Structure formats: C-alpha cells, structure tokens
Amino acid sequence: MTLKLWTAALSWNCLRVELVLAEKGVVDVERVEVDLVRRTFKTPDFLEKSIYGKVPLFEVDDVLIFESRAICRYLCLKYPDVGSHLIPELRNPEERGVWEMRLLLEATEFDVNISPVFAETIIKPALQQTPDEVILARHQPRLETCLDVLNKTLSEIPFLGGQEFSLVDVFYMPGIYCATKCIDVFGNRHALKKWWDGVSERKAWAVGVVSLDDFWVRVSPGWKSSPPVALGEEEEGNRAHL
Ligand SMILES: N[C@@H](CCC(=O)N[C@@H](CS)C(=O)NCC(=O)O)C(=O)O
Ligand SMILES: *[C@@H]1O[C@H](CO)[C@@H](O)[C@H](O)[C@H]1NC(C)=O
C-alpha cells in the first residue's frame, strides 16, 4: 500500500494531518511538498486529483482524499489500534453525538474566524499587502467569543472532546497556535492555557510544528514572540518575502 501526501510546510491544514500521522506513528508516507506561494503545483494532473486545487491531498493506492479533517478521520479508521487512540469509545449515541458536535464546531465556529484573522494579520503583511480592517473587525470579535467558549468548556472538561485527548484536540491545535501569532489568546483564559500547556507537550506536536515554524519565522517578523509584535513595530531589513 502506497501512501502519498501532497503537503505544504506553511499550511496549518496540512499540519492537522501531520499531527495524526505522528500520533499514530505512521512513517511510511511519500510526501510531495508543494509551493503554495508560487502555485506551481497547480498542474492539470494535480487539479484532476484535488478538484478544488488545494492541499492537503492524500492518495492511498488509487483512492484520493482531500480535506484535512476527512484525511484525519480516514487515518483513524485505518489505524484504530496503532499509536494514540483518537476516536474515543463512547457508551451511547448521545455521547457520540456530543463528541461529533464538538469535532464539527472546530470547523464551523473556530476555523471560519481564525482563518481570516490569520490571513489579514500574518499572510497579507508577509505578501506586502495591507490588512483589511473590515474583515478583522468582523472576525476578530467572533474569534474572541469562540476562545471564551473554549475556555468555558475546558473549565468543565479536561479536553475539547471530553474526558480524554482525542481528534477534537488535534483539530484545534494548529488554529489555536496560529491564533497566538495574531492575538492574545491565553490572557485570562486560564483553562484554555492549561489545556494548551498539556497538549503542546505531546511529542507529535513538537515534531509536527517544526516545519510550520521554520517557514513562518523566515517571512513573518515576530513569529517567535507571543503575543505578537504589533504591526509596524517590527524591524524592516532582514525580512524575507513570500
Ligand atoms: N478545508 C480545507 C482547506 C484546504 C486549504 O485551504 N488549503 C490551502 C492551504 S492552507 C490551499 O491549498 N490553498 C491553495 C489555493 O487555495 O489555491 C482543508 O482543511 O483541507
Ligand atoms: C476561563 O476559565 C477560568 C476557569 O474556569 C475562569 O477562571 C476564567 O475567568 C475564564 N476566562 C474567561 C476570559 O472567561
């Protein structure tokens, strides 16, 4: 069985898949690193495989799967007894329903707000473009509200999916990390901070985040500092451009 993954170091959606591979200890994967900036990967062959032209894209034998969360689910089904157990055994349909709800909320409530905030705060400045204040004014308050909800959840249960570490935590981690580069995520959200300190100690995270950091450190001033350096305060000069 050949596993092939089209991926990009700068992409937090790709990191989601890398985290599951690392949690599962799956190493036999052929990776194709695509250039998201120059977009040279959008060949007819690639577009035939990934019909929306995006990464991550996963190919296993002749089957193609895109959408990072679907790839993650696939990997959990494929390797149920290998490495970390990321889909909990739940006693009844109600518990399963709640877990599925928490899993989906990451995409429907959190990702829809962190993605535009990250695009305006980090990606556009790296591309020498001006952030759109209207977009920030719309999505940043929603992001803050979402983080408050997560903090509240985590003051009631230890992990975002329930009593144990699961795919729900993995789904959130790349976006929460990117959020720390845009706004003060933890501030007085102590429960969220406690959760983050725990999950970010996992080996899979330490391994997975390296290439994302390596990319963004080169193109985004202040990437290593958190809360971030305010726009305009950074030193020009040794900054690479996307
Ligand atoms: N919901 C998708 C998002 C995929 C996505 O937006 N990928 C970006 C990189 S983070 C991409 O490939 N962009 C290329 C493009 O849109 O042209 C997922 O989770 O996989
Ligand atoms: C986060 O949760 C903690 C623990 O319940 C609570 O003390 C704190 O006030 C919460 N922070 C916010 C911003 O709601």
UniProtKB/TrEMBL annotation:
A Gene Ontology BP annotation from the UniProt entry: glutathione metabolic process
Catalytic activity: RX + glutathione = an S-substituted glutathione + a halide anion + H(+)
Source taxon at top rank: Eukaryota
Transmembrane segments: none
Protein's organism: Cladophialophora chaetospira
Name of the featured protein: glutathione transferase
Pfam families tied to this protein: GST_C, GST_N
GO cellular component, one term: cytoplasm
Domain GST C-terminal: 92-231
Residue intervals of the GST N-terminal domain: 1-83
Family that this chain belongs to: Belongs to the GST superfamily.
Region forming the signal peptide: 1-22
GO molecular function: glutathione binding; glutathione transferase activity
